[in-house]
Amino acid sequence: MRPDLRTAIATVCLSGTLDDKLAAAAEAGFDGVELFENDLLAARRGPAEIRRRCADLGLSIDLYQPFRDFEAVPPDVLAANLRRAEHKFDLMAELGVDTVLVCSSVSPDAIDDDDLAAEQLHLLATRAGERGLRIAYEALAWGRFVNGYEHAWRIVRRAAHPALGVCLDSFHILSKGDDPRAIRAIPGEKIFFLQLADAPTLPMDVLQWSRHHRLFPGQGDFDLTTFTRNVLDAGYRGPLSLEVFNDVFRQSDPYRAAVDAMRSLVGLKDSLGLLDVPAAPVSDGYAFAEVVGESNLAALGFTRTGVHRSKPVELWTQGDARVLVNANGEPGAIGALGISVPDPAAAAQRAKVLLAPPLSRTAGPGEAPLTAIATPDGTQIFLCANDDWLGDFVPTGESAPGAGITGIDHVALTQPFDNFDEATLFYRAVLGLEPGATAEFAAPFGLVRGRGVSGGGVRLTLDAALVRRGGWAPAVEEPQHIAFTCTDAVACAEALRQSGARLLDIPGNYYDDLAARTGLPADRLSALREHSVLYDRDEHGEYLHFYTELAGARVFFEVVQRIGGYRGFGVTNAPVRMAAHHDARGRTGQLSK
């Protein structure tokens, strides 16, 4: 395996004009691009000028694509196809690119005849070879007769021309469930190009799946590490190139998308053992969570145990749960998370390689030199090795009995919809948190998508509203919350209500249904109903949880009790919680829309 593998990105991955796409790819550090024909046709620059522009940006044009519906056709169609090909060859000469992608035919003119396909591809390769060009033949997953890479390789091998090889596309192979191990049998010099794309597992037509739902490596469910290792073990020496068709990416900021794309390839190289970069940190939990503005933590049994020496920040604690309240910033938001890691310097170095450079911050004399990095949604992550940061706070000497909260279970961060997959990749690649399955549920105000990411003692949930339109959408557009742990959810809820905490009331209909669904004992169900504690269970255990009303503009708190090995986050109850929050805001006059 080679640590110096070049990187490339297809222009179809990014939004904007061709100039926008090229500039974004160059700024993100790509070595080359695949030039998608539609981008060329819409460009104001001519081919020679595009070539010069790429050279000025330090980009090579590694592939021109696509050339469709060529092989296994009647003689009159072949003649027309060859005329098309000669035009493409002229264009490639001006662009300075030597490889063209030829997709397996979907044309009604195509004939199911491998010998004819090989003969005509040999002819095409002969004409290309005379001009110093190469043909990379790719099996489309929906090809009319050729839809598997092994079939494409048999035809290429039969054609036996040095200017003809295969293009391997991870989506076309893995979406069909084809075994990538046979790739090792293809001589490396006959693998002319490699295209990489991830994707979520979706039970849908493969063409629609491909055109709208591809993702960058590390954002979906495909095992691209094993796939790519097979290609490299076969002897492939070309670039690792991304070809991702995605409706969101193609209307997002191309510079941000290009950085996300590059992060995906850096993460893939790391998973292949091709980079000298520190391993993803294994965290043993949260050092702290920071909220901005007044959060009424005293009503939850927290004690103000410290005041920062130089910043307007207070430390509130209960059990092992530590919450910082920062007077600066957007009120009612989660501003930062402290993650306990064994080696903050190594974690920071990894973050930098994964395109998440440390944030500049000022530490006063004698204060802990904490390193912070920014997540895609702007939340700061502080990397903490131990409790040295506690020395930055002057103890208040205050105490309170507490209410049964013992620590931080997870933190929920709502993502802008366009950045949902970017956030998944960030936490996976930079911090080593593994994503769970993506869940979608019908909330009171539209469809919501969510997934958990976890590793070591850190759990996060990432949520995004797919569509928000009109004045009927709830005023809290990006709610966030911190979930605390406890050993007895019912007792904790009872204690908090007695202390004056504003807990969220859950309607009785929920408990009527819960009784029918679960068959819980009547006394247990009655306790849950009385204290508005919600319930979920999976094959590993049970989950009891309750919520506060909003504390500020967008933050609320959850208290959870995990029984047994329950692994989820009570997502099935989210629509009930969202409706209850809306009703509570209406009662207190907090609704602004």
From TrEMBL:
<dbReference type="GO" id="GO:0046872">
    <property type="term" value="F:metal ion binding"/>
</dbReference>
<dbReference type="GO" id="GO:0046279">
    <property type="term" value="P:3,4-dihydroxybenzoate biosynthetic process"/>
</dbReference>
<feature type="domain" description="VOC">
    <location>
        <begin position="273"/>
        <end position="386"/>
    </location>
</feature>
<dbReference type="InterPro" id="IPR037523">
    <property type="entry name" value="VOC_core"/>
</dbReference>
<dbReference type="GO" id="GO:0016853">
    <property type="term" value="F:isomerase activity"/>
</dbReference>
<feature type="binding site">
    <location>
        <position position="481"/>
    </location>
    <ligand>
        <name>Mg(2+)</name>
    </ligand>
</feature>
<dbReference type="Pfam" id="PF01261">
    <property type="entry name" value="AP_endonuc_2"/>
</dbReference>
<feature type="binding site">
    <location>
        <position position="558"/>
    </location>
    <ligand>
        <name>Mg(2+)</name>
    </ligand>
</feature>
<feature type="binding site">
    <location>
        <position position="169"/>
    </location>
    <ligand>
        <name>a divalent metal cation</name>
    </ligand>
</feature>
<keyword id="KW-0456">Lyase</keyword>
<dbReference type="GO" id="GO:0046565">
    <property type="term" value="F:3-dehydroshikimate dehydratase activity"/>
</dbReference>
<feature type="binding site">
    <location>
        <position position="195"/>
    </location>
    <ligand>
        <name>a divalent metal cation</name>
    </ligand>
</feature>
<protein>
    <recommendedName>
        <fullName>3-dehydroshikimate dehydratase</fullName>
        <ecNumber>4.2.1.118</ecNumber>
    </recommendedName>
</protein>
<feature type="domain" description="VOC">
    <location>
        <begin position="407"/>
        <end position="549"/>
    </location>
</feature>
<feature type="binding site">
    <location>
        <position position="138"/>
    </location>
    <ligand>
        <name>a divalent metal cation</name>
    </ligand>
</feature>
<dbReference type="Pfam" id="PF00903">
    <property type="entry name" value="Glyoxalase"/>
</dbReference>
<feature type="binding site">
    <location>
        <position position="410"/>
    </location>
    <ligand>
        <name>Mg(2+)</name>
    </ligand>
</feature>
<dbReference type="InterPro" id="IPR050312">
    <property type="entry name" value="IolE/XylAMocC-like"/>
</dbReference>
<keyword id="KW-0413">Isomerase</keyword>
<dbReference type="InterPro" id="IPR004360">
    <property type="entry name" value="Glyas_Fos-R_dOase_dom"/>
</dbReference>
<dbReference type="InterPro" id="IPR036237">
    <property type="entry name" value="Xyl_isomerase-like_sf"/>
</dbReference>
<dbReference type="InterPro" id="IPR029068">
    <property type="entry name" value="Glyas_Bleomycin-R_OHBP_Dase"/>
</dbReference>
<keyword id="KW-0479">Metal-binding</keyword>
<keyword id="KW-0670">Pyruvate</keyword>
<comment type="function">
    <text>Catalyzes the conversion of 3-dehydroshikimate to protocatechuate (3,4-dihydroxybenzoate), a common intermediate of quinate and shikimate degradation pathways.</text>
</comment>
<comment type="pathway">
    <text>Aromatic compound metabolism; 3,4-dihydroxybenzoate biosynthesis.</text>
</comment>
<comment type="similarity">
    <text>Belongs to the bacterial two-domain DSD family.</text>
</comment>
<dbReference type="InterPro" id="IPR013022">
    <property type="entry name" value="Xyl_isomerase-like_TIM-brl"/>
</dbReference>
<feature type="binding site">
    <location>
        <position position="243"/>
    </location>
    <ligand>
        <name>a divalent metal cation</name>
    </ligand>
</feature>
<dbReference type="InterPro" id="IPR043700">
    <property type="entry name" value="DSD"/>
</dbReference>
